[in-house]
Specification:
alpha/beta; binds cytidine-5'-triphosphate; binds ligand LQXTBERG
Length: about 230
C-alpha cells in the first residue's frame, strides 16, 4: 500500500546544545537527516517524503539533496513553532490514503517495522512504533516520589506513527480548534477517542537523537549495523 511520510525536521535542537539544528550534525560524515531520508528513499511503497523544514534552512536542505537518487521523491514544507504545527503543515502536502509521521531525528528505523506499521494502519486505521519500558517509572513532584507506575503495561513510544489520512487530519483539526498540544500524533487521535491505536513492537535502537550522549549511542549503532551487514 502506497504512503507518504511526513518527516519533521524543523526543530532547533535545544537539548543537543549544538547551537544549530541537530539534524545537520554529521554522523559518519553525513548529516543525520540524510541517514533518515535514505531509509524511506529505498522503500518502493513510499511515494513522497514531505520534509518539514525551517524557512532559513531551505537552501541547505535543497543543496544537501539535489542530485540524489531520491530528489524527485522529496517535497519541502515550512514548519511551525511546535512539532505538532510542523506536522500539521506537512499534512497539507499528503496525497495518499495512508500517512506516516517519522521524526527526522530517528535515523535508525528499520524497514520491517515500517512495513508492519503500514499494514496495520491499512487494516485498522492507526499504528505506532514502541518498545516495552525496561526501567522502573515513578511519578515525582519537586523531586519527591509520588508513586511508582506499574510498568507491565507501559510502552516507550517512538515514530513512525501510521494512520489512514482522514483519521490524522481530523485529529489535527480537532487539536487546532481546541488549542490542544500533544507530544505525538497518537495523543491527538486518542483525544478524539473513537479510534483504536495499535502498537507495533519496534527496536530499542530506534532512538531519537536528542541530547549529546545520543551521538555516542548513534555511532555505536552504526558500527554494530555495519558489522551485521557484513
Ligand atoms: N517545531 C518543531 C520542533 C521539532 N521538529 C522536529 O520534530 C522531531 C522531534 O523533535 P525534537 O527531538 O524535540 O527536536 P528539536 O525540537 O530540534 O529538539 P529540542 O526540543 O531539544 O529543541 C525532530 O526531527 C525535529 O526536527 C519540527 O519539525 N518542528
Ligand atoms: C513523537 C515522539 O518521538 C514520540 O516519542 C516524541 O514525543 C517527540 O518528542 P519531542 O520532544 O518533540 O522530541
Amino acid at each position: 500500500m502506497e504512503y507518504d511520510v511526513i518527516i519533521p525536521a524543523a526543530g532547533s535542537g535545544t537539548r543537543m546544545g549544538a547551537g544549530k539544528n541537530k539534524l545537520l550534525l554529521e554522523l559518519n560524515e553525513r548529516p543525520i537527516i540524510l541517514h533518515t531520508l535514505e531509509v524511506f528513499a529505498g522503500e518502493p511503497d513510499c511515494s513522497k517524503m514531505i520534509v518539514v523544514i525551517q524557512p532559513k534552512e531551505e537552501k541547505i536542505f535543497r543543496e544537501m539533496t539535489v542530485g540524489s537518487p531520491y530528489e524527485k521523491k522529496l517535497a519541502f514544507v515550512y514548519g511551525g513553532a511546535e512539532r505538532q504545527h510542523s506536522v500539521y503543515n506537512g499534512l497539507k502536502a499528503v496525497s495518499t490514503g495512508i500517512v506516516l509521521v517519522h521524526d527526522g531525528a530517528r535515523p535508525f528505523i528499520r524497514r520491517p517495522v515500517i512495513k508492519q506499521l503500514v499494514s496495520e494502519a491499512v487494516r485498522s486505521g492507526a499504528a505506532i512504533a514502541a518498545v516495552p519500558v525496561k526501567d522502573t517509572i515513578k511519578q515525582a513532584v519537586d523531586h519527591e516520589v509520588v508513586q511508582t507506575i506499574d510498568r507491565s503495561s507501559l510502552w516507550q513510544v517512538q515514530t513512525p506513527q501510521a494512520f489512514r489520512l482522514p483519521i490524522l487530519q481530523q485529529a489535527h483539526e480537532w487539536a487546532r480548534a481546541e488549542g490542544y498540544l500533544g507530544t505525538d500524533e497518537a495523543s491527538l487521535v486518542e483525544k478524539k477517542g473513537d479510534i483504536s491505536i495499535k502498537i507495533i513492537k519496534s527496536d530499542y535502537d530506534n532512538i531519537k537523537i536528542t541530547t549529546p550522549e545520543d551521538l555516542y549511542f548513534a555511532r555505536a549503532i552504526l558500527e554494530k549495523r555495519a558489522q551485521l551487514d557484513g
